[in-house]
Amino acid sequence: MKQNIYDNNKFFEKYQEIRARENNYNNLLEQPNFFTQIPTLKNKVVFDIGCGMGDFAAYCISQGAKHVTGIDISSNMIANAKKRHIHEGLTFMQVAFEDVTVPNGSIDFVSSSLAFHYIADFQLLIKKISTALCEGGMLLFSIEHPIVTANKGKENWITNHEGNLLHFAVDNYQDEGLRTQNWLVENVMMYHRTMSTILNTLIESGLQIEKIIEPIPTKEAVCNLPSLHREFRRPSFLIIRAKKHKSKLA
Amino acid sequence: MKQNIYDNNKFFEKYQEIRARENNYNNLLEQPNFFTQIPTLKNKVVFDIGCGMGDFAAYCISQGAKHVTGIDISSNMIANAKKRHIHEGLTFMQVAFEDVTVPNGSIDFVSSSLAFHYIADFQLLIKKISTALCEGGMLLFSIEHPIVTANKGKENWITNHEGNLLHFAVDNYQDEGLRTQNWLVENVMMYHRTMSTILNTLIESGLQIEKIIEPIPTKEAVCNLPSLHREFRRPSFLIIRAKKHKSKLA
């Protein structure tokens, strides 16, 4: 099932409001950690899945990438990306990754920031990425952490009568599949997968795990956005870097 | 700090009672999953860390292993192991792994069942294991899952007024280090480490992650020990198989 929540106008409007603020979870927590793992981009062919408004694709071009394809299922996003970033090395397409044809071994670097939890068939996704990557090519992606997506309840921070946070509720961990959350609008769909499913899928698809990050905010970030202190109590995000085996070594 | 809780006589007595029951978490959940990942043992040199009463070491011999060294910090355990299992290919020693000298590259297979969460310096432990392993050698270990060890509270299953389980409480996830739990006796010490610390430590020590298991009980196991149904709600254990890089490929 291909969800296209970013073409829900109410959702997209609220999303743009959040992203316009400098102090959000992406800017203060996910992106700084994601950026520590980006490979050298000079002359690389890059594929960005869930490219949104195209800022990361444009960044890759600015770092010398030969060509960057950014795809997103949302026409709102792709329209914005095309308006914001024009460069001969940049291609933006409104399409789901499942429906794209990418020549085998043609990509040096596949990136994806906070998009894979919207994709139903993770095995197919990772297999397709692994096939598209050249030998030694890299996949870098961030997703919502399994600790956060596990519970089917809508509110996972448990508070006492005074409204103080007691702990974070985990439940239904082994029951993978669809979850609905209230984020910006009601019933946003995403998919819960266990840590072992995520990692074993990468390994079984010929990708070697190189780095795992469960981001921790800096002190400065917590000053700017105090709710980030909760990240010490449980991680919101998971960032994984993996490398395509060279076939002789596989 | 080297904890030697198994030489606490009250603890050891209760531990023996539990292990004497067929229906315990080790027999029904951890061991069946651990065993799925054991390599071919024929002519292998094996090192078992936290060998307990030596049953796994003896199993390796029965499968054709050339030599098995079992170490445990507990004199109770080693005394039992030596009594239960006598074979020219078996050596049992009461010693902490930190204090053992193992020739570089001399071991084919390092195993450890539910012992690493008692060891304070995980980096040192894994580095030492990696150095002891031959090229292509394997490490297989199980530990308490980070979801379970995170919270500093003593009771992590949250219940309602009727005593029904509501959810599992996670907290203090990023605050690694000592935890005390009440298991069999009060204040058993163990160490909480995040998933990313565990996996990155292996990777940085030259070990390639091959398989992650968060064990799920079989229906039959849940019939035999109904409390195992909680394993669907959050995992108790984490099992990891990793392989020493061949140096040419590293």
TrEMBL record, chains A, B:
Biological-process GO terms, alphabetical: methylation
InterPro entries: Methyltransf_11, SAM-dependent_MTases_sf
Keywords: Methyltransferase, Transferase
Protein origin, superkingdom: Bacteria
One Gene Ontology MF term: S-adenosylmethionine-dependent methyltransferase activity
Residue span, Methyltransferase type domain: 48-141
Name of the protein this chain belongs to: Class I SAM-dependent methyltransferase
Native source organism of the sequence: Cytobacillus praedii
Phylogenetic placement of the source organism: Bacteria, Bacillati, Bacillota, Bacilli, Bacillales
